[in-house]
Inverse folding.
C-alpha cells in the first residue's frame, strides 16, 4: 500500500506534503514549486494545462482559463455571481449546480477540482516514485456536509481515496506542534484567496476541540486583487487616458499585474505597475501604487474580518486576554494591514514562523502519518542491466550511466537549482529506460543540504554514480562551491529478474516515441514559462533605466514576445511553444544589452561631470 499524503486544496494555490523521517515535507510539483496554482486551462487543441502553466497562458486565453472554486461550495446556482465573474472564481462553488462552459463543454466545480487533484496526485507520484492512492485533505472548519462530500467526490474522480477530511485550523495547529505543548487556547486566523475563517481551539492531551468558528465565505485575496484592478483602471484612465474596461484580455492581465503588485506591497511601501505596449497604445504606461493608498482603498475589506473574529471569541465565551496563541494561515496574512488588525483585536503578536501558504498541508501530512502508523521503507534493487540516473526538473529522468555500461565504472553529471535560493536538493535515484521519472523504478532517495543560496540555475551540484564489481552502487551529490556532500549506497540484493528487465526494455521501446513527445512538451513548456518570468523581471528593470528610444523598442519587442509565448501555451502545441520561446529569448538578450548600455552611459556621464 502506497503512502498517504496530505493535501491543502486551496482557493488560489494547492499544496501537498508527506512524512519523511518523522517530519512533514512539502512535495514539489513538476515545475519544482511548492505551490500549485489552483488554475485549469483548456488549450485550443484540446490539451489541458493545470497549475503554473495554466496561469502563465491566462492572459492569452482568458475565456478558457478557470481560477479558484471555494467560495460558493455547496451553494445553489441562484446564489452565484455572473458568468463573467465566475469564470475567474470557480473554486468557490463546490457542491453547487453551477457549471462553466468552455467551447460548449460544461464542467462542474467538482470536475475542475478533480483536475487540480489529478495533477497533485501525478506530481506526488513522480516525486515519491510510487503510486499515491490515499490522501488526507483539509477543508475550512465551517464547511457543511454537502461541501465536504463534494470535496471527497472530486478526490474520488482524481483517483484518490480520502481517508480523512481535516479542518484547516486543526491541521495548522498540528504543523506548529501545538499538540505537544501544555493545554492552551489558540485562535487560528485563516485568510486565503477566497475565504476567511477564524477558529478558537482548546488544546490539551493531544486533543483538539473546536470551541467556536466564524468567518466569511466571500472574503479573501481575490477581493483585494479586484479592488486593486479597479484602482489600476482608474489610474490608467486618469493619467494615460486609456480605457481598460470590458476587454477580457485586459482584465486578465490587470488581474495578474494587481496580484503581483499586492505581493510586492506586503514588503515594500510602493510599487510601479507597467502596462505592456499592446495595451498602452504603443506607450510604456506606468503608474505608482503606494501601500498607504492600497490599504486605504481596501480598508473596508480588511475591516470585514473584525466582526467574525469578535463573534468567535464571544461564542467561545472568551476575552482576548484568554488566548495563548494566535496562528496565521494563508498567504494573505502576510499583508501588514491584516497583521495590524490581528494585533489590535487579540493583543498578541501572531505566531507565524511556518510559511502560511504551507502550514495546512504540513499539518495534513502529520495526520496522514498518524493514520499510516509508520514510515514506509524503501526497497533497493539491482541496477546493472538498466540505465541509472536521477529525477530532474519537470519530472524527467536524467541518465548518468547508460544500461549495459561495463562495471566497475564511475560517472558523474552536473545539475543545478530548480528555484531561487534553494538550499537543499533531494536526489531521487532511479533505474529504467523511460523518459519520465514516474515511469522508472525508484532505488532510493537522499537529501543534499547546505547548498549556497543562488538565483535559479546558478548552483552547481555534481551527482556521481560509482558501481563496483559486486554490483554495489554508491551515489553522491556535492555542492561544488562548498564541497558539501551526501552519499547513499544501494546494494544489488533484490534486483529485477531477467524476465522483468526484458519486459521493461520492451515497454520502453514500445513507448519511445510517445515518451519523447511528452518530454519535449514538458521541457518546452517549462523553458518558455521560465522565460516569461525572466521577461517580467527584465522589463521591470527597464522601467528603472534611463529612458531611450532603443530601450523602448526593445521593451515593446519583449512584450510582443511574451504575448506570443502565452498564446503558444494556450494553443498547447510543442513546436509553437519552442519557437516562441526561442524568439522571446532573442528579444530578452537585446533588451538586456540596451539596459547595460544605458547604465554604462549614465556611469560615464556621472564620472565626467
Amino acid at each position: 500500500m502506497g503512502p498517504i499524503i496530505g493535501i491543502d486544496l486551496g482557493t488560489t494555490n494547492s499544496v501537498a506534503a508527506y512524512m519523511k523521517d518523522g517530519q512533514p515535507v512539502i512535495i514539489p510539483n513538476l515545475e519544482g514549486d511548492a505551490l500549485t496554482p489552483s488554475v485549469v486551462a483548456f488549450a485550443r487543441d484540446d490539451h489541458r494545462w493545470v497549475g503554473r502553466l495554466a496561469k502563465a497562458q491566462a492572459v492569452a486565453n482568458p475565456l478558457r482559463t478557470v481560477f479558484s472554486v471555494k467560495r460558493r461550495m455547496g451553494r445553489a446556482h441562484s446564489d452565484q455571481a455572473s458568468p463573467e465573474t465566475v469564470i475567474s472564481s470557480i473554486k468557490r462553488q463546490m457542491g453547487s449546480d453551477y457549471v462553466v462552459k468552455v467551447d460548449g463543454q460544461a464542467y462542474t466545480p467538482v470536475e475542475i477540482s478533480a483536475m487540480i487533484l489529478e495533477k497533485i496526485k501525478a506530481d506526488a507520484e513522480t516525486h515519491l516514485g510510487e503510486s499515491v492512492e490515499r490522501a488526507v485533505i483539509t477543508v475550512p472548519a465551517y464547511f457543511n456536509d454537502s461541501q465536504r462530500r463534494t470535496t471527497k467526490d472530486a478526490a474520488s474522480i482524481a483517483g484518490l481515496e480520502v481517508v480523512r477530511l481535516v479542518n484547516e485550523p486543526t491541521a495548522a495547529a498540528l504543523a506548529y506542534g501545538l499538540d505537544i505543548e501544555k493545554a492552551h487556547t489558540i485562535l487560528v486566523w485563516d485568510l486565503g484567496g477566497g475565504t476567511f475563517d477564524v477558529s478558537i481551539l482548546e488544546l490539551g492531551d493531544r486533543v483538539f476541540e473546536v470551541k467556536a468558528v466564524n468567518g466569511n465565505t466571500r472574503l479573501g485575496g481575490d477581493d483585494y486583487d479586484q479592488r486593486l484592478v479597479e484602482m489600476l483602471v482608474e489610474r490608467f484612465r486618469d493619467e494615460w487616458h486609456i480605457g481598460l474596461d470590458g476587454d477580457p484580455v485586459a482584465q486578465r492581465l490587470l488581474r495578474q499585474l494587481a496580484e503581483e503588485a499586492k505581493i510586492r506591497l506586503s514588503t515594500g511601501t510602493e510599487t510601479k505597475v507597467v502596462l505592456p505596449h499592446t495595451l498602452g497604445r504603443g506607450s510604456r504606461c506606468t503608474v505608482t501604487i503606494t501601500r498607504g493608498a492600497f490599504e486605504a482603498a481596501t480598508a473596508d475589506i480588511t475591516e470585514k474580518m473584525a466582526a467574525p473574529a469578535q463573534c468567535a471569541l464571544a461564542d467561545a465565551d472568551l476575552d482576548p486576554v484568554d488566548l495563548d496563541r494566535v496562528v496565521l494561515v494563508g498567504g494573505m496574512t502576510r499583508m501588514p494591514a491584516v497583521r495590524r488588525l490581528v494585533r489590535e483585536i487579540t493583543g498578541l503578536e501572531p505566531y507565524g514562523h511556518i510559511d502560511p501558504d504551507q502550514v495546512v498541508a504540513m499539518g495534513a501530512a502529520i495526520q496522514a502519518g498518524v493514520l499510516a502508523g509508520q514510515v514506509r521503507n524503501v526497497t533497493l534493487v539491482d541496477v546493472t542491466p538498466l540505465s541509472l540516473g536521477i529525477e530532474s526538473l519537470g519530472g524527467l529522468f536524467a541518465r548518468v550511466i547508460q544500461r549495459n555500461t561495463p562495471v566497475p565504472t564511475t560517472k558523474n553529471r552536473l545539475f543545478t537549482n530548480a528555484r531561487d535560493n534553494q538550499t537543499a536538493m533531494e536526489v531521487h535515484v532511479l533505474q529504467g529506460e523511460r523518459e519520465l521519472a514516474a515511469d522508472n523504478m525508484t532505488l532510493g532517495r537522499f537529501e543534499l543540504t547546505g547548498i549556497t543560496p543562488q538565483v535559479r540555475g546558478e548552483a552547481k551540484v555534481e551527482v556521481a554514480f560509482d558501481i563496483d564489481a559486486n554490483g554495489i552502487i554508491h551515489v553522491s551529490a556535492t555542492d561544488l562551491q562548498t564541497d558539501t556532500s551526501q552519499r547513499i549506497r544501494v546494494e544489488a540484493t533484490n534486483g529485477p529478474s531477467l524476465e522483468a528487465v526484458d519486459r521493461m526494455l520492451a515497454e520502453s521501446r514500445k513507448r519511445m516515441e510517445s515518451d519523447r513527445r511528452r518530454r519535449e512538451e514538458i521541457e518546452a513548456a517549462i523553458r518558455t514559462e521560465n522565460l516569461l518570468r525572466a521577461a517580467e523581471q527584465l522589463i521591470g528593470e527597464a522601467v528603472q533605466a534611463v529612458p531611450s528610444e532603443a530601450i523602448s523598442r526593445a521593451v515593446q519587442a519583449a512584450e510582443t514576445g511574451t504575448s506570443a509565448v502565452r498564446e503558444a501555451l494556450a494553443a498547447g502545441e510543442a513546436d509553437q511553444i519552442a519557437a516562441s520561446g526561442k524568439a522571446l529569448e532573442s528579444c530578452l538578450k537585446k533588451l538586456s544589452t540596451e539596459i547595460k548600455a544605458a547604465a554604462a552611459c549614465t556611469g560615464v556621464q556621472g564620472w565626467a561631470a
In short: The first strand starts at residue 4 and ends at 8. The mean pLDDT is 79. Residues 574-608 form the longest helix (35 residues).
